[in-house]
Design a protein that fits this description.
The protein is of the alpha+beta class. Helix content is about 20%, strand content about 25%. Strand 7 and strand 8 form a beta hairpin.
Length: about 325
C-alpha cells in the first residue's frame, strides 16, 4: 500500500512539475503606452494636402484634393492623413498565452497545437506559432483626442485567437481560403519575393508581389506553418504579415487608406501591404530609432532593427503594435442642416 501511495505521489508531483514548466513558457508584459510605443510612427500628418509634421517618417501617397465631401452622413470637410495605432498582435509558443496582457495563460479546457521548430534532412528549418489579435485603438483609448470621426472609436478587445481557428494548423483547409496559392508554389514565384524584399527595405513593399511578405518569405499559406524559419524575430514578423492578410481575406479587417476610404472603411480581400507599419513591444520595446525610425513597413528586413530582440525563455514570445494608414474626410460642415 505504501508503495502504491509513493508511486501515486511521485506521479502527481511529476504532473505538477510538467504543468509548471508548461505554464512557465508563457511570458509577457503590459506595454507602457508612454515609453514603449513608437509615437513618431503616427507621422507624417497631413491636413488639407499640407504636411503638418513628418519627423522624417515614411508615408504612402495621399489624395491630392484639399476639400472632400461624403454622403453618409452628408458632410463636407478637408482631407486628413496619418498612421493610426489600431491593433496589437501576439506571436506565442504556448496556446492561449496572452503576452500583451502580462503573460497570463488561459485554460479553456481543451488542447490546441503548441509551437514547434524542426529541421528535416536537406531542408530549411520549419516552425509553427499561435497568434492573438487585439483591437487596440490606443489614441482613442487614452482619450488624447476626443470627438474625432477619423479615429476608430471602439474599446480594447481580444478579437481573434488562432487556437480557435481549425485552418491555422492545416494547409489544406487554408487553401480553401486562398486558392491562388497553387499558382505561387514554384521557384520563379518564390524568387520574385527577393524584389519585394528590396522594395520593402528601401521603402514600402510592392503590391505587385501580393503573394510575398518581403524579406520574411512567402505570405502563403495564411496560417501558422512557417516553411523557412531563419530567426524568431523574422518568423514572428512573418506571422504579423499573415494574420493581417488572413483577416483581410476573411473581411474582418478593412482598408482605411486611399480615395475610396476617405468617407469610411472599405472591404479589401487582398491586403494592401503598404497600408501598415508595425513595431515590437515585447520582449524588447522598439523605441531606439535607426535612421530616425522606430517602426517599419511590412516585409522590411529584420537584420538591423531585430538584433538583440530574441533570447532564451523570456524572449521567445513576441508582441507588436500595428499602425494602419488612415485617409479621412475630416468633416467641418454637416450638409443639410
Amino acid at each position: 500500500m505504501k508503495s502504491v501511495s509513493k508511486k501515486l505521489f511521485f506521479a502527481l508531483l511529476l504532473i505538477g512539475i510538467c504543468n509548471a514548466s508548461h505554464a512557465a513558457t508563457c511570458t509577457g508584459r503590459f506595454a507602457n503606452p508612454i515609453t514603449d510605443i513608437c509615437w513618431s510612427c503616427i507621422f507624417p500628418i497631413r491636413i488639407a494636402g499640407i504636411s503638418i509634421s513628418s519627423l522624417e517618417q515614411e508615408d504612402t501617397p495621399n489624395p491630392e484634393d484639399i476639400a472632400c465631401a461624403c454622403g453618409n452622413p452628408p458632410r463636407a470637410g478637408i482631407h486628413v492623413s496619418f498612421w493610426e495605432p489600431v491593433r496589437r498582435v501576439d506571436v506565442v509558443r504556448d496556446p492561449f498565452c496572452l503576452t500583451s496582457l502580462g503573460g497570463i495563460s488561459m485554460n479553456p479546457g481543451f488542447d490546441a497545437p503548441v509551437a514547434s521548430r524542426n529541421r528535416r534532412d536537406g531542408m530549411d528549418q520549419a516552425s509553427f506559432y499561435q497568434v492573438h489579435w487585439y483591437v487596440d485603438p490606443i489614441i482613442f483609448f487614452l482619450q488624447t483626442i476626443l470627438d474625432n470621426g477619423c479615429l476608430e472609436n471602439v474599446g480594447f478587445d481580444i478579437a481573434y485567437l488562432t487556437e480557435l481557428d481549425p485552418m491555422w494548423k492545416d494547409d489544406e483547409l487554408t487553401a480553401l481560403l486562398t486558392p491562388e496559392i497553387f499558382l505561387f508554389g514554384n521557384l520563379p514565384a518564390r524568387a520574385a519575393c527577393a524584389a519585394d524584399c528590396v522594395a520593402a527595405t528601401a521603402g514600402f513593399p510592392n503590391n505587385l508581389f501580393f503573394w510575398c511578405a518581403g524579406c520574411q518569405g512567402s505570405l502563403h499559406p495564411l496560417n501558422g506553418n512557417i516553411q523557412a524559419h531563419i530567426g524568431s524575430v523574422q518568423a514572428s514578423s512573418l506571422m504579423v504579415n499573415r494574420i493581417i492578410a488572413k483577416l483581410h481575406r476573411e473581411l474582418l479587417m478593412w482598408s482605411a487608406a486611399g480615395n475610396n476610404s476617405v468617407c469610411g472603411y472599405t472591404p479589401q480581400p487582398v491586403m494592401d501591404k503598404t497600408g501598415y507599419k508595425y513595431q515590437m513591444l515585447y520582449p524588447v520595446p522598439q523605441t531606439l530609432k535607426i535612421a530616425g525610425k522606430c517602426c517599419q513597413p511590412l516585409g522590411r528586413s529584420t537584420v538591423l532593427w531585430g538584433a538583440g530582440r530574441e533570447f532564451p525563455i523570456q524572449g521567445e514570445d513576441f508582441s507588436y503594435q500595428i499602425f494602419r494608414k488612415r485617409n479621412c474626410c475630416q468633416g467641418a460642415i454637416v450638409l443639410g442642416e
